[in-house]
Every structure is written in structure tokens, then in C-alpha cells.
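Please fill in the sequence for the structure shown.

STRUCTURE ENCODING:
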């Protein structure tokens, strides 16, 4: 079925269309608009598995009472598809569509001045803010739907400063609502295509689909050449979900242009306004974590230097809380080890690169101890971890603060692992001391102590093996029977 409009032909395909075509469309988010090589005219593809978005109903209602409707959303949120759906739904105007692929020229203004009672639809990245004034001035009885990316605040500002025009802005979400989800999944089931998870963003779904089919398809979106600037941005985004202006100024050169960075980075990055300031965001956390993890595996020295440089630059800019959080082992492990394989040399290299600025900080040595606990594959690394944790414990002995008790529990686990690597009753006694102290001060580290208990009950780990060894140690039962009984009772309750 085909519908003809001024400047554009809309080609619809059935809901149960060719499976591979649908998969390719999902991976690349289109192309929604493409050139017909025979006629050199633009065509809009509308596979019918693309449910009519709820926001289209809102646009249809709002265009009746407003001259301008602004559709705002992140990249890869479905703005172009929604505009095509508006073309098909809003029938009482002669429609003119301008895609982001067309060059900006004087034609829209000339056309607006020469017609009346027409609907002009502009996709994002077509209009510049300085054209808005002319559209308002010469709009007459014409109506306008203008899509803008979240970061294109200049377009919004032009309308906000104008008092003689009726306009409204609507936001399009980068994920399906319940009604849209039911419609899309029904169509995808007809075509034999894997479904998105409920609540997934379009970009996350596209990336999962790409990962499942990457042997058959390429991707303009995900096959991106990444630079050190990308990896710096991704490290900040992975740690804090967004890169604020203060982060950007500290980690990039003065000549860094955030707007250009977003424009040249496919659809994966975006800018949003938070509390009046522009912040950088990533549209696919799944892609972000996978890319960082692959980077740490394939180029661990380079990746470690990038992370250390970001921490150093935050520290030099006096953004200490962010720098401290970024060296947290659990955070780094979540960001750079999505496949749970560990990145031993990577983590060690990150911390080694930061010894000059963090060597006097207990927090740093505690993270070093935790990293050895998690990644060491032999007794030597575990002994290094013990040395780091003992330093933290001794340096904070008078304070008996949270850092002290965290080091105590980390030591207990290091001794558990060390016993499994090289069984020794001396190690068992050291381990017992650390566990008993942690239990006696339960309120100072309750969440992590509970986690130890859960792991003990799973049985297939060093904690269970070492505590069971303690329970049958004749020497331990002779010298520390009550403490052994207390530990085992606590672990089994």
C-alpha cells in the first residue's frame, strides 16, 4: 500500500514481512528515509511492525489548536517514524516534508510564503534556530510540526521568546509504552523476530539484536571508530550515568566541542538539559558496558591509562568525590568485566598508574586489596592483598571507622582464599580473628556481612571451604572452640 504526499512517498510493508529485512531495520533504526535510485526522489519506509506511537495521537490533537507542535526526543527515539505516521494520519492539509538528509536552503521559506492551509513537517537536524523567526513571521494559516533532538535547545528558545505564536512541545520516549509494546510484539511474533524486553530503549534492543546477528549484518550505528575522547566520555558515563559540564571541562582540552562530538558519534550519544546545564548521556548502556569491557580485554594497558587519566584529571580539578568513586573496585569491575572473566592486569595497571596521587589514602589501598581478592589467581597476589588490607586496618585502628571494618572483612575473605590456595592452620586462625571481629561489629558493615553468609550457604566457594576446614581443625577446636562455634552458628542462621 502506498500513499503520496508532496515531496515524499510512503511505502508500507506488511506486519509479517521478510524476517531478515525487519532485523536489518531494527539494527540500523531504518533507514526510515531513503533515496529511490531510479527516480532520485525520497521514500519513507514504514514497516507495519512499527506501532503507531501514542505521541502521534497527541500531535494530531494539538495541531488543531496550535500553529507549531515541537516533537522533542533523544536520538534513536523514533522521531522520524512518528513524523511519517503524522503524515498518514493528518489528512486535512496539503503536507510538505523535509528530511534531515536534504540540504538547508531558502525553499521552505519561499514555499511557506506561497501557500496557505498547508502542513509543514521538519525532521530533526534540518532546521536551524535562525530560520524559526521567518517561519513564525510568514507562517500565516499554515501549520508546522518540527522535530528536535534533546540537545537542540536553541529551537526551543526561539519559541519560548516569542509571545505572538501558539505552540506546544511534546516529548517522545525512547521506549515503547504498554499499548505500543503489545502491538509491536504481536507483529514481531508473526515475523519470527526476537522480542525486546519490556522497558528496553530502542537503542538497547537494536544493540542486542545486532549482537545476536552480527555475523550477518553490519551496523552504521554500532560499528563506530572510537577515539580516546570516546573512551574518556564512556568511562564518565558508565560511572555516573551522565557527564556534567564540570566533568567535561576537567577531562577534555579547552578546544573540545561537545556539540560536534555528539553530532559525529552516530546515535549513541546525546545531550540533555539538567538544571539549566547541558549534560552528555549515552543512549545504550548495554553497548557502553560491552565496549568498555572489550577495550579492557583487548587493549588493557591503553584502557588502564585512559581510566587513570580520567581519575587524575578529575582529582586535579578538585572533583574529589567523583575521582574517589571512579577508583572503587566494584564500580570498575561492573564497568569493565561484563562477561565476569576478570581483567587482572587491567585493574592492577589502573591502580599502579594512580599510586603517586592516592598512595597516602586508605581508600586507595582498600581498593587495591579488594582487587587482589577478586582477581588474584595465586597465593602471591593474595598475600599482596593481605598486606594492603593490613595497612588500611592498622592505619585506621584508632578511628575504628567504616574503612577499618571494611578492611577487616576484606582480610577475612583474603585469608579464606589464601587457605584454599595454600592450606595452613596459621592462616585459619588469622581468618577466624577477622570473621569474629566482623560479627561482633555487625552494625558497622551489615550488608557485606550478610553477603558473606549468603555465599557461605552456596557452598561452592573459598568461604565455605575454609570455614568448614576450621570446624574440623583439632588445633582450632582445642584453642578457640567457642569462637569456632560462634562463627559456624552465625553462618548457618
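FILLED IN BY: designer on duty
SEQUENCE:
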Amino acid at each position: 500500500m502506498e500513499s503520496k504526499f508532496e515531496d515524499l512517498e510512503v511505502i508500507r510493508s506488511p506486519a509479517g514481512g521478510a524476517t531478515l529485512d525487519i532485523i536489518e531495520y531494527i539494527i540500523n533504526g531504518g533507514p526510515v528515509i531513503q533515496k529511490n535510485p531510479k527516480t532520485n526522489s525520497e521514500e519513507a519506509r514504514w514497516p507495519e511492525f512499527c506501532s503507531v506511537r501514542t505521541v502521534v495521537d497527541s500531535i494530531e490533537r494539538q495541531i488543531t489548536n496550535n500553529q507549531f507542535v515541537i516533537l522533542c526526543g533523544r536520538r534513536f527515539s523514533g522521531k522520524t517514524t512518528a513524523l511519517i505516521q503524522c503524515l498518514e494520519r493528518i489528512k486535512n492539509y496539503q503536507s510538505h516534508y523535509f528530511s534531515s538528509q536534504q540540504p538547508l536552503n531558502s525553499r521552505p521559506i519561499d514555499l511557506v510564503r506561497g501557500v496557505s492551509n498547508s502542513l509543514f513537517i521538519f525532521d530533526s537536524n534540518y532546521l536551524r534556530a535562525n530560520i524559526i523567526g521567518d517561519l513564525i513571521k510568514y507562517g500565516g494559516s499554515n501549520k508546522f510540526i518540527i522535530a528536535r533532538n534533546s540537545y537542540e535547545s536553541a529551537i526551543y528558545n526561539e519559541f519560548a521568546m516569542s509571545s505572538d505564536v501558539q505552540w506546544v512541545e511534546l516529548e517522545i520516549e525512547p521506549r515503547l509504552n504498554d499499548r505500543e509494546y503489545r502491538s509491536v510484539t504481536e507483529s514481531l511474533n508473526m515475523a519470527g523476530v526476537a522480542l525486546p524486553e519490556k522497558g528496553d530503549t530502542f537503542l538497547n534492543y537494536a544493540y542486542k539484536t545486532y549482537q545476536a546477528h552480527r555475523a550477518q549484518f553490519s551496523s552504521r550505528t554500532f560499528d563506530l571508530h572510537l577515539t580516546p575522547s570516546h573512551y574518556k566520555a564512556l568511562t564518565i558515563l558508565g560511572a555516573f550515568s551522565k557527564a556534567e559540564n564540570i566533568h567535561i571541562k576537567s577531562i577534555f582540552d579547552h578546544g573540545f566541542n561537545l556539540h560536534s562530538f555528539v553530532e559525529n558519534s552516530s546515535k549513541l550519544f546525546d545531550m540533555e538539559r539538567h538544571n539549566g546545564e547541558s549534560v552528555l548521556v549515552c543512549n545504550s548502556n548495554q553497548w557502553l558496558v560491552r565496549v568498555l569491557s572489550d577495550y579492557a580485554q583487548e587493549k588493557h594497558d591503553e584502557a588502564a591509562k585512559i581510566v587513570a587519566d580520567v581519575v587524575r584529571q578529575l582529582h586535579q580539578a578538585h572533583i574529589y568525590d567523583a575521582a574517589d568513586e571512579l577508583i572503587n573496585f566494584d564500580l570498575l569491575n561492573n564497568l569493565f568485566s561484563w562477561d565476569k572473566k576478570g581483567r587482572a592486569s587491567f585493574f592492577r595497571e589502573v591502580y599502579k598508574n594512580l599510586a603517586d596521587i592516592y598512595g597516602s589514602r586508605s581508600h586507595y589501598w582498600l581498593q587495591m586489596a579488594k582487587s587482589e581478592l577478586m582477581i588474584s589467581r595465586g597465593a602471591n597476589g593474595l598475600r599482596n592483598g593481605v598486606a594492603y588490607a593490613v595497612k588500611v586496618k592498622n592505619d585506621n585502628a584508632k578511628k575504628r571507622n567504616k574503612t577499618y571494618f571494611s578492611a577487616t572483612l576484606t582480610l577475612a575473605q583474603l585469608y579464606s582464599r589464601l587457605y584454599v590456595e595454600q592450606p595452613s592452620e596459621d592462616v585459619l586462625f588469622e581468618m577466624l580473628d577477622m570473621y569474629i571481629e566482623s560479627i561482633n561489629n555487625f552494625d558497622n558493615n551489615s550488608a557485606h556481612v550478610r553477603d558473606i553468609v549468603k555465599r557461605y550457604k552456596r557452598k561452592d566457594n573459598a568461604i565455605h571451604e575454609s570455614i568448614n576446614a576450621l570446624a574440623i581443625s583439632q588445633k582450632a577446636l582445642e584453642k578457640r572452640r567457642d569462637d569456632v562455634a560462634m562463627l559456624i552458628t552465625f553462618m548457618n542462621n
